[in-house]
């Protein structure tokens, strides 16, 4: 309890109520309860290395394509188990530290008067002494196992943080990019199908002003991750515009069917799927950062952060009148990246 001085009277016009009487905690008065709390804390911290090792085992032992049914939903088994083991390990450290602070560390109330910001040497020494006293009060000297368990738990926790770096994948060389992010399953003769009904589309199915979300008919031959990866690259939008109201460069003259044009659905900014279509202006708006593309002018960017036009897929019709691709995309779809050469997007004289 501090003694009130004349200085205090100046600084505190309202009388200092002083400290309330200290109330002992159950772990202060009952040694058995204190020991119980101590063991609980050590047990929690000791579980962390086990969970961290389980995380690493799950990472390597559980196949990425395994799924678990939990209630009515299906979850990727590896993701679920990594989340449970990693999350529980971090949670246990947090709970153990809070339990330690609330039950075993000293909770004696104290008063510390304000002082000037610059501390004299004597104060610094006093602070160092206070710090040492505080450490002493945590009981770490007497109950050294907590400190060691905490250090061990934090150290081993580096493993779950480092191991997933293996998922960063191989270095994206030009050859690898050509076979992965720069390639879709679009090929000559592949039909364009509605991405909801999976029905192949005919030119007569589209009216002027209409937009349809579509995909390659072979997409549904793929499954799991291969399906997801390909869908994220090969999804398209088909729009029908009055051919007299749009501008078609010389090199793309035979890429459309009577004003039906087909573009990648993946925004060239950072890859959001797009289909906000303004049929009067022929503009397509990306909802993520408002990049706007003019589909009546080769998908050129008219507004927003996207750095290049939407890739266009050349289409024609087959003998039965269904819309088909004339070939793959001539340029990579999706967001730009440093190595990509946007000068290939258009032929000379197109713009
Ligand atoms: S992802 Fe489309 S504007 Fe950013």
Q: What is this structure's SSE topology?
A:
Blueprint: H1 6-11, H2 26-29, H3 31-61, E1 67-70, E2 73-76, H4 77-103, H5 121-137, H6 144-156, H7 158-162, H8 174-179, E3 192-194, E4 211-216, H9 224-234, E5 236-240, E6 260-264, E7 276-278, E8 283-285, E9 292-294, E10 300-303, E11 312-313, E12 315-317, E13 323-325
Antiparallel strand pairs: 1-2, 3-4, 4-5, 5-6, 6-11, 7-8, 8-9, 9-10, 12-13
The chain binds FE2/S2 (inorganic) cluster.
FE2/S2 (inorganic) cluster binds at residues 267, 269-272, 286, 288-289, 291, 304-306.
Distance between the termini: 83 Å
CATH superfamily of the largest domain: Rieske [2Fe-2S] iron-sulphur domain
What order do the SSEs take from the amino end to the carboxyl end, as H and E?
HHHEEHHHHHEEHEEEEEEEEE
CATH architecture of the largest domain: 3-layer Sandwich
Structural write-up:
The chain is α+β, with helices and mostly antiparallel strands and 351 residues long. It has 2 domains: 151 residues; 166 residues, 3-layer Sandwich (Rieske Iron-sulfur Protein), CATH 2.102.10.10. The chain is 34% helix and 14% strand. The chain contains 9 helices and 13 strands. The site of FE2/S2 (inorganic) cluster has 12 residues, from loops.
Provide the descriptors you would attach to this structure in a database record.
single chain; 351 residues; 2 domains; four-stranded antiparallel sheet; 9 helices; 14% strand
Summarize the structure.
With 351 residues, this protein is an alpha+beta fold.
